[in-house]
Hints:
The protein has 242 residues and is an all-alpha fold. Helix content is 57%, strand content 0%. It is built from twelve helices and no strands. The chain is elongated and about 70 Å long. Zinc ion (ZN) binds next to loops. Residues 137, 139-140, 142, 144, 146, 150, 155, 157 line the site of zinc ion.
Amino acid sequence: MKEGRLPxxxxxxxxxxxxxxxxxxxxxxxxxxxxxxxxxxxxxGRLLSQRNVSTEQWTDLKRQFDxxxxxxxxxxxxxxxxxxxxxxxxxxxxxxxxxxxxxHAGAKxxxxxxxxxxxxxxxxxAWNKVPREERKCxxxxxxxxxxxEHFTSRCSVYADLRDDCRQRMQQVxxxxxxxxxxxxxxxxxxxxxxxxxxLVGLSNEKRIRLDSIICGYLKVxxxxxxxxxxxxxxxxxxxxxx
Length: 242
Ligand SMILES: [Zn+2]
């Protein structure tokens, strides 16, 4: 925080006050404590007692802070089984189809499915503290865990919609297309439906057409699932299981 800025002044004043009058224990309740603790974690606590912080020190601190936060976020992600798919896909491609508008209901659903934010059994059961092995699909009742991949690519309840979607995608892709992409369409690869790496190499026109077909499929499949899911949830909630 810059010298002349009021928050910087207040922060330094508060830190000095707590240090000087020996109220460290009371400091744990204050807002300056977590910041001090973070600076200590980054071995930068000494900066608090310096009169001036050089540009190099400031740049170095910001870099360390970024690294620390991404390590923390990675560790948190690693610990959550419901975010397996999110880890597998990684971030959306900078110019990929996922950067397009989210006006389409299917595109919104895709975003939620990617990050565990849609109420499918895996996410809802986690929210209700049900162990992972019991998070079975109650739409097909065939004993598989209902995760995003099961919903988009495997559940038998949407097989006819998937066939239709597959056929329409094959019409857009001509015979000269990448054989791996054609295989991904045949397999209904979850990375094709929820990710964007398969579509990156295509012309803009083809990407948009394929994306519309995929979003249309997600929207219609979700519409079929919703009334069944509602019967499994408490009145008025999409997340609280009965
Ligand atoms: Zn199912």
